[in-house]
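ok trying again, last paste got cut off:
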Amino acid sequence: MNVGQEIRSERLRRGWTLDDLAKRGGVSIGRIHDIEAGNPSSVEGYVRLALALGLEPRLTVRNERVARTARDVDPVHSAMGEVEAAHLRSLGFEVLIDEPYQHYQFSGRADLLAISRERRALLHLENRTRFPDIQDAIGSFNGKRAYIGPELAARIGIAGGFRTEIHVIVGLWSAEVLHSLRLRRETFTSVGPDPADRFGAWWAGTIDLLKPGKTSSIVVLDPLPGRRSSRRRWIGLEAAMTADPRYRGYADVADALHRAGVA
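nice, full thing came through this time. structure:
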């Protein structure tokens, strides 16, 4: 059982805020947020929250080696998230990885979220190493960009919700992905119609210049830029229509990561 998800689902079903549960369970808001996000906590913390919600606490165990293997089954996807998280965190943003969300029948996990509480700003990145099923990828992205902002804002206590939401599909900078983008150009343009400059503001750490609103964009990213610091890490959809690929496909990137000792 995913304890954090169960606790969050029951809290939302009851219409409780994080503060409501904190008061009833004697657990801090920050600790509840960590638990709901899937981060490990003490048995006492789980029991306090379960009892406050009327849930029956049960003890389970798992093989952590198996869990790690499951997470690392896609090393290229993991490498993309690692690059993004390291860069955005270095700029002072709060970063959440594999963050769960639920809105009635819609539920899932966001690959990466970057948050500025002061600016009430959210960046949501959906990483894609390939597009074997374009409609499925688009459906997942549409659900997340519609619901994850309000749900997350309510969960972590952003009063009034996020003023700025940037949702981005981040494709691997490979010939395989570029081919998909070019083959279905109008489809991807419809899903990510906004220029990538707002994503660029997050990447540059200049989000104070962003105007309020919600936008959706598509970029391609290189998780292994090499030694040249001037080499572009990412480009937007328009540039991707004519840019040369950095890699032929997924396998080439996986091999490069292995040779670099990071996968």
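cool. The chain has a mean pLDDT of 87. The chain has two domains: 3-52, 68-259.
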